[in-house]
Every structure is written in C-alpha cells, then in structure tokens.
Amino acid sequence: MVDFILKTLDLSKNFGGITAINNANVEIPYKGVTGIIGPNGAGKTTFFNLLSGFLRPTSGKIIFENRDITNLKPHKIARAGLSRSFQIANLFPNMTIEETVLIPLLSSSNANYKSIKALRKRTYHLLQSIELEQRKNTLVKDLTQGELKILDLIRAVSSEPKLLLLDEPFAGLGHQTIIQLTKIIAELRKKTTVIIIEHKLRELLNLVDRIIVVNFGVIIADDLPEQIIKNQDVIDSYLGKEELK
Ligand code: ATP
C-alpha cells in the first residue's frame, strides 16, 4: 500500500466568480519530486497557497501525514513540516544572509538543533552548501536575483521540512544559476518530498518523477513525464504553446 504524505480531497477555491481550483484530488507519495504545470492563471499558485495555509479553501480538505490541516494557520502548517518558497523570493531586505537562515531555524520546533551554537553551526553549513558562508553579514538587499532565489530555497529547507513546495524556482534565472539550483533540488530529494511549479519545462523534466497538469483550475492529467509530453489534452491546452525544444 502506498503511503501518501499529502492528499487533497475535492479541494476548491473560488474568488468571486472565478474558480481558481476546482475539486482537486491529488495524492503525493512520500519522497520523489512532482512537477505542476499549466498555463498562466491556471490556479497553480493558488493550489500552493491553499496547501500552505495562505488561503482558506472554499471547500474540500487537505490531509498532511494523515492529519487534517485544512484550516490551520501558515506557521502551524510550517511547523508540521510543510515549507514553501515563493515565485519572488519573499525575504527581508535589511536582514543579513545569516539572519535569514538562522531566524526561521530558531522558531522551528526541530528538536535536533536546540542550542543557539548548534543552530549557528547548522546555518553555517547550509550557507556553505550554497557558497555564501563568507558573505553571511551581507544584507539581503545586496544580493542578485539568483542569489536571492538560492537563499530563499535554503531558508525553506533549513528546518528540514518533510514536504517542500517550490513556486517557479527557475523564473528569472540565468543558465548557471538554474544548474546550481537543479543540483541543490536533486540533493534535497534524498530527504524531502518536493513539489515544483515551473514553466521552464525542459529544466523541470530533469528533476521530476511525475507531473500534474492544471488548466482552468482543473487537474487534467497526473502521470509520468514521458506520458505527459505525449498527452493530447496537455499538448492542446499547454504544451503546444510552450517551448520544449
Ligand atoms: P501563473 O503561472 O501566471 O503564476 P497560476 O497558475 O499560478 O498562474 P493563480 O495565480 O493561482 O494561477 O491564479 C488562478 C486564478 O485565480 C487567476 O484567474 C487569478 O486571477 C485568480 N486569483 C488568484 N489569486 C487571486 C486573489 N487573491 N483574488 C482574486 N483572484 C485571484
């Protein structure tokens, strides 16, 4: 029997007359990387906002590790082990690189890293993994777009989440930074279940075990990547318009 880290049951979200997510039934098994693709406005970010508690669903349920988290506040969901990054890195410009990673660690409930000294050490190792440890006192506002994205990713994984949601991690990044991020995500998957929304399909295909396709709030396909790129509904609604050269 497959054990699922996350399930949504008839999950829906309406904004006035718009149904951004329409009766989504998704099952995400432990481990592995799932991609979510679909046209602009399909409802992908709304789906992440629902999972992470930033939006309340209109109806339906979200079950995380067999626990109903549907109406929990974002910080409670984060504490339960579900972490996310944002399309545009949502970091405090006047914090240092070190503070950006250390502060969420201090507030996380991870029992393995209780003393400040241990947390600082962990922060150092995390920054070392992205080659930012020498610049730990640099302010966030002085980082490039690529550095911001990588720092945001490390912040999201610092508390060792069980499930990590990445919203367009490659958007706005150059080729080298995408390669760097791909390596970090490939490393992460050894410990963490990952879901990635991404428009850059070729890069996504390098990472995912399966892909969920959303169109007008409806999940129109959920399959292996090699099946998805052959799926006529997916080609008609999305892939036909994307570059997959
Ligand atoms: P993109 O790929 O462009 O990021 P998306 O698939 O993430 O798009 P969403 O941002 O989830 O799409 O938007 C889905 C629909 O819900 C759109 O029609 C959008 O305009 C609408 N929507 C999203 N958030 C809100 C909101 N807070 N209030 C009203 N409508 C919203």
Question: Would you mind describing this structure in some detail?
Answer:
This protein is an alpha/beta fold and 245 residues long. Helices cover 33% and strands 25% of the residues. It has 9 helices and 10 strands. A 6-stranded mixed sheet has the order 6-7-8-3-9-10, with helices on both faces. Strand 4 and strand 5 (67-68) form a beta hairpin. Helix 3 (97-107) crosses helix 4 (116-129) and helix 3 packs parallel to helix 5. The longest helix is centred in the middle third of the chain and has 14 residues, at 116-129. The mean pLDDT is 90. Bound molecules: adenosine-5'-triphosphate (ATP).
Question: TL;DR of this structure?
Answer:
With 245 residues, the protein is α/β, with parallel strands linked by helices. It has nine helices and ten strands.
What general form does the structure show?
globular
Tally of contiguous helical segments: 9
- Structural class of the secondary elements? alpha/beta
Helix content: 25-40%
Oligomer: single chain
- Strand order, biggest sheet? 6-7-8-3-9-10
Set down the secondary structure blueprint:
Blueprint: E1 4-15, E2 18-29, E3 33-37, H1 44-51, E4 59-64, E5 67-68, H2 74-80, E6 82-84, H3 97-107, H4 116-129, H5 145-157, E7 163-167, H6 175-188, E8 193-197, H7 201-205, E9 210-215, E10 218-223, H8 225-228, H9 232-237
Parallel strand pairs: 3-8, 3-9, 6-7, 7-8
Antiparallel strand pairs: 1-2, 1-4, 4-5, 9-10
The site of adenosine-5'-triphosphate has 11 residues, from strand 2 and helix 1.
